[in-house]
Request: fold
Amino acid sequence: MEDKMKNLQDKMNKTVLKEIRFEEKHKQNVLRKVGYLNKTSNFERTKKHRSSLGKKITYSVCSVLLLFTLLIGSAFVSPAMARMLSEIPYLSYFLNQEDQIIDIERIILDVANKEDYDIWDIQVSKADKEIILAIRDPENKLSSLQNNIRKSVNDALQSENLGPYSIKIQRYEEDPLDKELNAKQDIRMAEVKLLSDELSKELKKQNFNILELQVNYTKESRLIKLEVPDTENQIEEIKEEINKVIQSEELDSYKIEIDKINLKIREQEQRWKPITNVLERRLQFNEDYKVNLLSFSFESLPVTFTINTSVKSSDSDAKEYGNMIEREIKQYIKSDESYEVVKNDPYKIIVYSEDKKKIN
Reply:
């Protein structure tokens, strides 16, 4: 048992950014996600339905008012976070591959918008350097346009050092049911855009302090969600203004949800986001940690880290294990990468066993 704990401690004592070790099956899982081990299909991202008019996106439009904006961050758009993740083996590989595929799709869609190609599906295989495009062709012009499409796409890819690719072009055949569903979808999307634009304009005109506005219209429900500072006291007035806009546009009623946001807590949560993202991936990717779930609470100080593990409290090494996880987290929080982010925020770490007992 001592040898086992010593080996685990040796692994945990490395820095977070240099020591995420994957067993072979982890490596296989990550590589499979980017398509290199999936023998049935070499395409990293299949059936990625797109169109130049955005006909395949979710019926949800977010309009963030310009009074002031607080965005919820993501590890994958933060330069500092991307730099930290780039040092993690295999995870870095996965992120880089995904980023390149997204870039390729973006370039293709830019070409489609510029030259008015109605692309409904993009499949990219980096392994085979191959792209398959499904293009809607109601006027039967596709056969005469194929060479131009290939050239335009490859020219654009090579201009950003991503090509060339072998490009296969298929006609997208829309069945009658899809056509009917798409027509209904277009109606919903048009209403979402109209309502989002009008609400943004009117709420701003009334000087309401809106952080975020989101309109959702699905087959099942209509919902308007807003976020406002917790100092905002005109909730009923905001709802009244929303209903006025809905009535003026002669639309069916929407359910309205308004969440009050503590700006200090949100700012703190944003600062900690790169740290919590790394720790989540660090502890959950590596099975040695036996972590089932991590959660972070910023509702009040100290910031609370809660870690649920698969360790039984009756295990002889449970306490040592819990303390080891706590030391590992503290080591990262005190590292140079985290110092400026954490500032002087107090925090506490609670590690639970599988049977919900504290083991640190």
